Amino acid sequence: GMLAEMGYLFTDTVESADLVLYNTCAVREHAEDRVFGNVGALKNRKAARPGMVVALCGCMMQQPRVAEKIRRSYPFVDLVFGTHVIHRLPELLYRTLCGRNRVFELPDEAGSITEGLPVVRDSSFKAFLPVMYGCNNFCSYCIVPYVRGRERSREPEKIIEECRGLIAEGYKEITLLGQNVNSYGKDLGTDYDFADLLSAINEIPGDYWLRFMSSQPKDATNKLFDTMARCEHVAKQLHLPVQSGCDRVLKAMNRPYTRAKYEEMIAYARSVMPGMVLTSDVIIGFPGETEDEAMQTVDLVEKTQFDALFTFIFSPRPGTPAAKMDDPVSREEKQVWFEKLVDAQNAISAKKHAAYIGRTVKVLVDGESDDEAFPLAARTEGNRLVRMKGDKALIGTFAKAKITDSNTWALYGEAVEE
Length: 418
Ligand code: SF4
Hints:
Helix content is about 35%, strand content about 20%. The protein has helices spanning about 1-5, 30-40, 45-50, 65-75, 90-100, 145-150, 155-170, 195-200, 220-230, 245-250, 260-270, 290-305, 330-355; strands at about 20-25, 55-60, 80, 105, 125-130, 130-135, 150-155, 175, 210-215, 235-240, 275-285, 310-315, 360-370, 375-380, 385-390, 400-405, 410-415.
C-alpha cells in the first residue's frame, strides 16, 4: 500500500524492476538459506542496472548476525530495515534514493502501533487483518519473540472499524492474525479479551466468515470456545498448536501446559462445537527427545483425531535456548519418527475427509484449481480444501458443494443450487 501511494506498480520480471524488496521469515532455516541464494542472484543485475534498489526487510533482518552478514557480504543491498519500522518505508526508501550511503534501520524496540497505513489487498473477498503484534511466550525453540518484540494489541475500535469497512466492501472471509491471539488485550489495561473482540465483530451484519490464528493453548479459555460456538460468523475451526504429546518435552519447549490439560481443552471445545474442525502444529525431534517421547506425540495425534496437522522436524534457530541444547539423535532417526507421525495423521485425514462424501456443504469459492476435471478451488467453513465442478462466476462467492469423493488432502465435489 505504501509503495502504491509512492507510485510504484508490480512488474513480473526482475529485469524491469526499479525496486526489489524481499520480505523475509526467520522461523525456519530453509527459508533463510533461500533468501541468501535469491539475493545473491541479484548481484549481476545490480551491476548491470545500478539504479535498481535492492531492499530487505522482515524477521531475518531483525537478527544482528543476519544484518551483519548482509552488510559485509552483500554490498549491493541498498536498504535493510527491521520489523519495527515497516511504517517508515517511504522515508527509508527516499533516503536510499537520495543518499550515497546504504541505509540500515534496525531498532531493537517496537514503538506504538502505527494505524491507518495504506493497504493494497490481493483478494477482493478474503482479507487478513492483524489484531496484535509480537509474542511474550519465549517457547525455547522459537525466534519470534526476539524478532517481533513484546505483545502489542491494536485498539478494538480500530479493528472493528476495519472489519466493518471490509464487510461493507463485500469481503466474505476475514482472518484475524496474531502470534498468539489468545492473549489479545492483555496489554491494553482493561478486561477486554479476544473473545470479546470476536463477539463485537460478530455483531456486524453481513454474509462472512471470521477466522483467526494462531493460538497458544496456555491462553485458550472456555470463554473463547463458548464465544466461538455462539457467534454465527465465527468459523467452527480451531488451530491450536500442541507441539508435543509428552509433558517432559512440553516443559523443555517452555510450553506451560500438559498433555492432559490440552486434551481437556479439546474435549470442552468439541462439547460446545460438535462439528468443529481441529488442526494443530507438531514438532518431532526436539533436542533430547527420545523415541518413546516422540511416540507419545503420535499417540496423542491418534487419540485426538485432528482433521489436519502441520508437522515439522526440529530446526535449530540460532539465538534460541533450544539451539544450545544437546541434540544426540540423528536426522535419519528423526525422519523415521516423523514418517510414523505423518502416516498416522494421513490415515486420520483421509478417514475424516471420506465422512464428507454425500454431504452438501457451504463453501467459499477461492479461485481456480489446478485440476482440469474440478476447475474450482473452494474452502469449507472448517477450511478444508474442496476441488469442485462449477461455473467460474462462483469465484468470490459462497456456494453449496455436494461432496462426491475425497483423499487425504482434499474433498471433491460439484456446485449445486441452494
Ligand atoms: Fe513462538 Fe508461538 Fe511460542 Fe510465541 S507462542 S514463542 S510465536 S511458538
